[in-house]
């Protein structure tokens, strides 16, 4: 066997042994809540399409019209092929939603973090990141070659202590955190972090992938926490509640101009399809037109938590920590037999010993399904 294949096989076998091998399950997703597996209709509680906008007829129509008119690809980097007017319009709208001067749209949220962080922070600088920050924040930190210091989850005293000890040794410091933690569903203490950032002249960046569209009337977690104007770097994705694809940064004009000039994932990667921009614009129309619509997924999550006796949710993500990967997989399999897709989240996505079921709630879920799911969870998992 060629050494490459041998390497891959050995690696897979070792992961398999630890129950950490991942496989794709063929799933025909019909909207935010309904999916078919092996011809069987299931209700998904594992989808980030919180407002079901990926299947909203108006959003689909906007994308289809853009595809017909502009084609399915953008032909190259926006700096090379030219900037499609839809991108300009989308950036203006995102900036307005987030209360920033301007925005820069990237190919995805992952690409955004990989591009933003090294553009601002270099080898002599430091980054302070929450230990539960999303993988792409840490990837962006690593490629910046800055000193990467990890603070305990949402621990302001630890963050303060690290700043006190190390800030003066570095010309620039970036504090970065998920606004809504993707695997835990809790919020970062953004206003207090902004105070620390001010005190130590550090730059604060939040990743609001799971906040935009569903928290703070659709404006996101910063707005929900009353911290408008206090986060100079507001990053997020169009791939979750916005229902399509792409990432963004909202910031002051010089920061955005610098991104467009220097960010490698912006410069050297092909622009989004024009239809993704058209779809996102339509999605933003729908969100801004109806604050009750934006709030619907939170209400569903709250219903589930009250029925199961869990603490009130801070976001549309509700984890149930089971600890052991095997037990978590078994619970996920049991729920699938009952017709519910609830993914088992295991290390290394989450820390060792914190394997969990992760439930996400969307505007499209029926209360009856939530009640039945809560009943199964209460009687067969939380016992
Ligand atoms: C999903 C997610 C991303 C990545 O966004 P994509 O657009 O899917 O690449 C980044 N950060 C957080 C916190 C996320 O949950």
Question: What would a concise description of this structure say?
Answer:
The chain is α/β, with parallel strands linked by helices.
CATH architecture of the largest domain: 3-Layer(aba) Sandwich
Strand content: 15-25%
From the 3D structure, determine the CATH topology of the largest domain. Answer: Aspartate Aminotransferase, domain 2
At the first level of CATH, the class of the largest domain is Alpha Beta
- Straight-line distance between termini: 48 Å
Describe this protein with a few key phrases.
2 domains; alpha/beta; binds pyridoxal-5'-phosphate; four-stranded mixed sheet; 383 residues; 15 helices; Aspartate Aminotransferase, domain 2
Describe the protein's architecture and organization:
The chain is an alpha/beta fold. The protein folds into 2 domains: 23-55 and 291-380, Aspartate Aminotransferase, domain 1 (Alpha-Beta Complex), CATH 3.90.1150.10; 74-272, Type I PLP-dependent aspartate aminotransferase-like (Major domain) (Aspartate Aminotransferase, domain 2, 3-Layer(aba) Sandwich). It is built from 15 helices and 14 strands. The chain has helices at 3-17, 57-70, 78-81, 85-98, 109-120, 135-144, 156-166, 190-199, 221-224, 253-262, 264-267, 274-289, 291-308, 325-337, 367-380, and strands at residues 28-29, 34-37, 40-44, 102-106, 126-130, 147-151, 173-178, 203-207, 233-237, 247-251, 317-323, 340-341, 343-345, 355-360. The strands form 3 sheets. Strands 4-10-9-8-7-5-6 form a 7-stranded mixed beta sheet, sandwiched between helices. A 4-stranded mixed beta sheet has the order 1-2-3-12. Strands 11-14-13 form a 3-stranded antiparallel beta sheet, covered by helices on one side. α13 (291-308) runs parallel beside α15. It is globular. Bound molecules: pyridoxal-5'-phosphate (PLP). The site of pyridoxal-5'-phosphate (PLP) has 13 residues, from α5.
């Amino acid at each position: 066997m060629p050494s490459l294949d041998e390497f891959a096989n050995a690696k897979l076998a070792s992961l398999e042994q630890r129950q950490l091998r991942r496989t794709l399950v063929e799933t025909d997703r019909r909207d935010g809540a309904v999916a078919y597996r092996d011809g069987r209709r299931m209700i998904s509680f594992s989808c980030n399409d919180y407002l079901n906008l990926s299947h909203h007829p108006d959003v689909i129509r906007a994308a289809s019209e853009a595809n017909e008119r502009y084609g399915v690809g953008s032909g190259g980097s926006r700096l090379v092929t030219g900037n499609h007017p839809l991108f300009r319009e989308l950036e203006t709208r995102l900036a307005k939603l987030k209360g920033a001067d301007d925005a820069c749209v990237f190919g995805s949220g992952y690409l955004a973090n990989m591009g933003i962080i090294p553009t601002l922070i270099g080898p002599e600088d430091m980054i302070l990141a929450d230990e539960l920050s999303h993988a792409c924040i840490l990837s962006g930190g690593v490629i910046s070659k800055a000193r990467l210091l990890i603070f305990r989850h949402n621990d302001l005293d630890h963050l303060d202590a690290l700043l006190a000890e190390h800030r003066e040794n570095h010309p620039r410091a970036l504090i970065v955190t998920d606004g809504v933690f993707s695997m835990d569903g809790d919020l970062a203490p953004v206003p207090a972090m902004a105070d620390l950032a001010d005190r130590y002249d550090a730059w604060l960046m939040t990743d609001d992938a799971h906040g935009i569209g569903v928290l703070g009337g659709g404006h996101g977690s910063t707005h929900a926490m009353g911290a408008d104007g206090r986060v100079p770097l507001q990053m997020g994705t169009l791939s979750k509640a916005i229902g399509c694809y792409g990432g963004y940064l909202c910031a002051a004009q010089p920061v955005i101009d610098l991104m467009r000039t220097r960010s490698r994932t912006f410069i050297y990667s092909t622009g989004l399809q024009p239809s993704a921009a058209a779809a996102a614009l339509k999605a933003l129309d729908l969100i801004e037109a109806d604050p009750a619509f934006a709030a619907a997924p939170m209400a569903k999550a709250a219903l589930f938590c009250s029925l199961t006796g869990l603490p009130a949710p801070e976001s549309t993500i509700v984890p149930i920590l089971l600890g052991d990967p095997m037990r978590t997989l078994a619970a996920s399999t049991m729920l699938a037999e009952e017709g519910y897709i609830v993914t088992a989240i295991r290390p290394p996505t989450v820390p060792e010993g914190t394997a969990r079921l992760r439930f996400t709630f969307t505007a499209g879920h029926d209360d009856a399904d939530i009640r039945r799911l809560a009943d199964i969870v209460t009687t067969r998992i939380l016992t």
